[in-house]
Design a protein that fits this description.
Elements: E1 23-24, E2 42-43, H1 65-72, H2 86-107, H3 117-134, H4 151-164, H5 169-181, H6 187-207, H7 209-212, H8 224-234, H9 238-262, H10 273-278, H11 283-289, H12 307-310, H13 320-342, H14 380-386, H15 393-416, H16 418-434, H17 444-448, H18 457-475, H19 485-509, H20 516-526, H21 531-561, H22 565-593, H23 595-599, H24 610-624, H25 626-629, H26 637-646, H27 650-659, H28 665-672, H29 675-682, H30 693-710, H31 712-740
Antiparallel strand pairs: 1-2
Helix pairs in contact: 2-3, 2-4, 2-22, 3-4, 3-8, 3-31, 4-21, 4-22, 5-6, 5-21, 5-22, 5-24, 6-18, 6-21, 6-22, 8-9, 8-31, 9-31, 13-29, 15-19, 15-26, 15-29, 19-21, 20-21, 20-24, 21-22, 21-24, 27-28, 30-31
Subcellular location: Membrane
InterPro entries: Oligpept_transpt, OPT
GO molecular function, one term: oligopeptide transmembrane transporter activity
Length: 772
């Protein structure tokens, strides 16, 4: 079992290694990380890929994180290969622009989709190998074509493109200002603000390298498939030839299939026998079993055949323990969300079942302009006449569980990772004092990287200071500060500590925990009656945290593929600059063309503003009306106090694990439960579409349990490659469909309505009752 958040990464992982062969012996204990497996010795010097073993009986089952990082990912390196070539720059900048545009389009889609690194990787490989074949390699042309397209060029391009295609929270906030407050920032100010918010996180990431990049326990499971594909494409032995053939067969198959559920036969994106039997007669059936249309239902027993949706659950990549905890949370969520809605918890029975908008008590959309002054501050006289807004019950429950999760995550890290935190703090202090990195890490990939010049810590510190100054300056360009300087400093400091706690979760489980609701509630008390300030706190209290995590993951990708650290640094900088420009440009185009649809609480099958609406709803409810809605004994006070209640959740499980006999069923169960993930998933469903989760359940157990245990040879060679092929093929066809028929180019072309594509005014996609 791969290690996840429920277990501590043992301190032995940071022991230094000698120049001779080193064995890491993991001794079972009450604090051991991989509780549900026997621990075996792992030779960290062994070259991975026990891939030449063709029979499963010859292959050792992967049990923990170290074995994933050592047996799936190769330590092979070729330092003579060039990194910065014409191909790197040309394709890196071009795909950065391409990825930024596509990611921005996805932000305004009803599906919770994103541009994966695998998508960028595949396009880069096709174009890079084509350039090598087409461009002459003799004479002066050798500077344009220095040899075969190599893994270092490829990785640098992927990091650039994926950095650009990670949509900045700043862009989403700027869109919310435009849509709901009619505030259009100057283009230069907006772009600089987007870039600065990303680079603040990058500066923090540099400080956290010793804790969340270099060690083996920080293995980022969602990135294993990316590294596995890169090495399969570029390390040319017979086995990799088989892998490449396997990859392209799967890629072509999903490319040919995915357009069917996405366009002519959308019923296949959420196939529910219950909905088919009900055929649109009952609201209750739609709310509980519906899952195909935006904000339709929570999808109990709904299956999807669309990989674009299924991949959101990462069933081939996430460790089984992570998936099991998420499925347990969803199982509780079906019960909690349905009971709370029908028992009128938070007064939401008359409202939509699912929506991120604000409503009047009778269910109509709340008009925030009636309670705000011209400067967007709260008009209390008008508020007394209009009344307070309401969240939908499911959205309120979701925010509460996210805050439970944040509190639980902080305590979980303190209980299970105290040794690593102490060690990292010592190294961080030494780094800041000396302005260079002096740390020994017991990791074979890190050891291979010692031949390259590291990025000095002062580079990251300087980048952090400059970006913070730019962010503060941009906040003061509109006359009235969007957010005062002292608040920017306060929430940036909070982000740093959150990045440490949440970074452990992402590094060991591949799972991200959102802090935006907690940050906005805190902001409602720091900036009462100021909705714009509340919204902008997201840039420094939420966005900074997640930009830090994204940058850390790319640093780990560079370590896995042996990309020189300074090349990784430059690639992330270039990607951030290009992404900032194209994020803003594409956002402005989409918002101008689809304003009314994006402001609608439910949206359409093609466009939806549900992501942007979250920021607006929070700015009004938490910013303008924080004291009226979230203080003690007010309607939503439990949402604020949920953070403190969540602090208690991990304690009983840790105590049981600590004081019961090691290896006993109770002991094993206690350390298997991951409270931050479990409680978050109780409220994970009332967004977007939910037809994929039961398919994820089946695929996840097949991959991470049956294949990993009973077909370990196939699992090592093909499981992560399969994930890469499915992600790549599906995202290529989605990009084509977005511009060809979904309206990204301006005009949508609807497929004719039929039984498998019902009229949305009559039935939802899965033939449940249509949403209002």
């Amino acid at each position: 079992m791969l290690p996840t958040l429920t277990s501590a990464a043992p301190a032995e992982l940071q022991r230094s290694f000698s120049s001779d062969s080193v064995e890491k012996t993991r001794t079972p204990s009450k604090k051991d990380s991989d509780a549900d497996f026997d621990h075996e010795k792992v030779d960290v010097n062994e070259v991975p890929f026990d891939a030449d073993a063709d029979t499963d009986s010859e292959v050792k089952v992967i049990e923990n994180a170290e074995e994933v990082a050592i047996q799936i990912v190769s330590t092979e390196d070729h330092p003579e290969l060039p990194t910065w070539t014409f191909r790197t720059v040309f394709l890196g900048v071009g795909l950065s622009a391409f990825g930024a545009v596509l990611a921005t389009i996805y932000t305004f889609k009803p599906q919770n989709a994103s541009v994966s690194q695998l998508f960028c990787l595949i396009i880069a490989y096709v174009l890079g190998t084509a350039m090598h074949a087409i461009i002459p390699s003799r004479g002066y042309f050798r500077y344009l074509n220095p040899g075969p397209f190599n893994i270092k060029e490829h990785t640098a391009i992927v990091i650039m493109a994926s950095t650009a295609s990670t949509v900045a929270v700043a862009m989403e906030i700027i869109a919310a200002l435009d849509l709901f407050y009619d505030i259009r920032l100057n283009a230069a100010v907006a772009i600089f603000q987007i870039f600065a918010s990303q680079m603040i996180g990058y500066g923090i990431a540099g400080v956290l390298r010793q804790l969340l990049v270099y060690p083996t326990y920080a293995f980022y499971p969602s990135y294993i498939s990316v590294v596995n594909l890169l090495q399969s494409l570029h390390f040319g032995n017979a086995l990799n030839h088989k892998r490449r053939r396997f990859f392209w067969i799967v890629f072509a198959a999903i490319f040919c299939w995915e357009w069917i559920p996405q366009y002519p036969f959308p019923l296949l994106t959420a196939f529910s026998i219950i909905c088919l039997a009900d055929n649109g007669r009952h609201d209750f059936v739609r709310n509980l079993f519906g899952a195909g249309s935006s904000n339709e239902g929570i999808g109990l027993l709904s299956f999807s055949t669309s990989w674009t949706l299924i991949t959101q659950g990462s069933p081939l990549v996430w460790p089984l323990q992570t998936q099991v905890n998420s499925y347990l949370g969803m199982a509780l969520g079906y019960l909690v969300l349905t009971l709370c809605y029908y028992r009128n918890v938070f007064g939401g029975r008359a409202l939509e079942f699912m929506s991120t908008s604000l409503f009047y008590e009778n269910g109509t959309t709340y008009d925030q302009s009636l309670i705000l002054n011209a400067d967007n501050s709260l008009n209390r006289t008008a508020l007394a006449e209009v009344g307070l807004p309401y969240y939908t019950t499911t959205y309120a429950i979701s925010q509460m569980t996210y805050n439970f999760s944040l509190g639980a995550a902080i305590v979980h890290i303190l209980l299970w990772h105290s040794a690593e935190l102490k060690s990292a703090a010592k190294h961080a202090v030494a780094t800041v004092r000396r302005f260079h990195d002096t740390v020994e890490i017991d990791d074979p990939h890190y050891r291979e990287m010692q031949k390259y010049k590291e990025v000095p810590a002062w580079w990251y510190i300087a980048l952090f200071v400059v970006s913070l100054a730019i962010g503060i300056g941009c906040s003061y360009t509109t006359g009235t500060p969007l957010l005062p300087w002292w608040s920017i400093l306060l929430f940036t400091a909070i982000s740093f500590f959150l990045a440490v706690a949440l970074g452990f979760i992402t590094a060991t489980t591949g799972f991200n925990i959102s802090v935006k609701y907690a940050i906005q509630i805190l902001a409602s008390f720091v900036h009462p009656g100021q909705p714009i300030a509340n919204m902008y706190v997201n840039l420094y209290g939420n966005s900074t945290t997640f930009q830090t995590l994204y940058m850390l993951q790319d640093l780990k990708l560079g370590q896995y593929t042996k990309l020189p650290p300074r090349a990784t640094f430059a690639a992330q900088m270039v990607g951030s600059i290009v992404g900032s420009i194209f994020n803003f440009t594409m956002m402005r185009s989409i918002v101008d063309a689809n304003r009314e649809v994006l402001k609608d609480p439910t949206g359409t099958r093609v466009w939806s503003g549900w992501i942007i609406q979250q920021y607006n709803s929070a700015s009004v409810a938490m910013g303008a009306l924080g004291t009226e809605l979230f203080t003690f004994h007010k309607r939503y006070y439990l949402l604020a106090f949920a953070i403190f209640i969540g602090l208690l959740f991990p304690v009983p499980f840790w105590l049981v694990h600590r004081y019961t006999r090691a290896g006993s069923p109770v002991n094993r169960a206690a350390r298997y439960i991951n409270t931050p993930i479990l409680v978050l998933y109780i409220g994970y469903l009332p967004y977007s579409v939910n037809g994929q989760w039961w398919s994820c359940f089946v695929i996840g157990f097949t991959s991470q349990w049956w294949l990993r245990r009973h077909r370990p040879g196939w699992f090592k060679k093909y499981n992560y490659l399969l994930s890469a092929a499915l992600d790549g093929g599906s995202q290529v066809i989605i990009f084509i469909l977005s511009f060809a028929v979904f309206g990204a180019s301006g005009n949508a072309v609807d497929f004719p309505y039929w039984w498998g594509n019902p009229d949305p005014d009559v039935l939802s996609v899965d033939r449940c009752k249509a949403t209002s």
